[in-house]
Records
---
Amino acid sequence: MRIALYPGSFDPPTLGHLSIIQRGLEVFDGLTVAVLKNPAKDALFTVEERVELLREVLGNDPRVTVKTFSGLLVKFAQQENVRTVLRGLRAVSDFEYEFQMANMNRKLDPQIDTLFMMTGEKYFYISSRFVRDVARLGGDVSGLVPPVVQAALEARFAASNAAPGGSTK
Ligand code: PNS
């Protein structure tokens, strides 16, 4: 069985992520979606919420498992006995960061390789950060995220967007 690790923050999961997962499943027998338990203070959803959203979006596909990890990605890959990391590449601007990360990971464990898939042209401009901003400011995120994530974003910002003066907090 060829399994790849698809790591990320997924705060929140977007249609771009889903597209990579679906296309990754054309190449691999299975994927482990690995959600980073990051200490970032500006995270919108808790790690548990992100895992739940991913599980809802992915349904019961037995080929996909959603897990969390902290610390080094290569250590988690070793624990999981997985040697391929899957990442999506959107634009040239992603390249430098991804190139550095892939090489750092390879330095840390030369047995672990990173495979990049180009994000579909419909999704190349979508990022979790912009999705959070658009939702926070009351914009329409349909077409950017799955409906269940849209509902979660709307619920999260419902109170602030309803407030007089449109507080953005
Ligand atoms: O969705 P993101 O935020 O672009 O995902 C980044 C992620 C989680 C893949 C990356 O930050 C990561 O692997 N973090 C774990 C820490 C680590 O291994 N760092 C060393 C490699 S640079």
---
Amino acid sequence: MAKTNRENQKAKVIEVLNKARAMELHAISQYMIQHYNLDDMDYGELAANMKRIAIDEMRHAEQFAERIKELGGEPVAQNPAKVVKGQDVRKIYPFDSGLEDETIAEYNAFLEVCRANGDNISVKLFEAIIDEEQAHYNYFDNTGNHIKTLGDVYLSKIAGTSASTGPSTKGFIANQGGGASA
Ligand code: FE
Ligand code: FE
């Protein structure tokens, strides 16, 4: 039997929600690896914030999955993109701001697909998550600029700082006092 118009609309929204979920799963793996590496290099404060950002991405992956389930879809469990390992601290931040910027552009396009298919709840979900990706972008961009302009002076201030995120393991947005889900 052919799909109804409503079923087609839902299928299109589920497709973009799952694309976004796969991107979140990729970001989680990428940022977790960077968190361990920064910790290993003893850049504690950078490691702690990377861990917090990975936690934000886990929440995003979950939020997309919940909406997919509500629409009767099946959330993807795989991260199809390759994770980059062993990056120097000078490479990490331009790389990650690039990832966030790409994510913002993609999510803006996905949001339009949700709007065109009459799903305002998913539009609002993308809007809220785009705001958080922008905060991640700003942090990565600022940190990358500090490393670029101040170099060793900046890094020597970070070396040996604590990598602890405390017992609460709040995400980055919540730790900064933002976000509805903080
Ligand atoms: Fe995210
Ligand atoms: Fe992000």
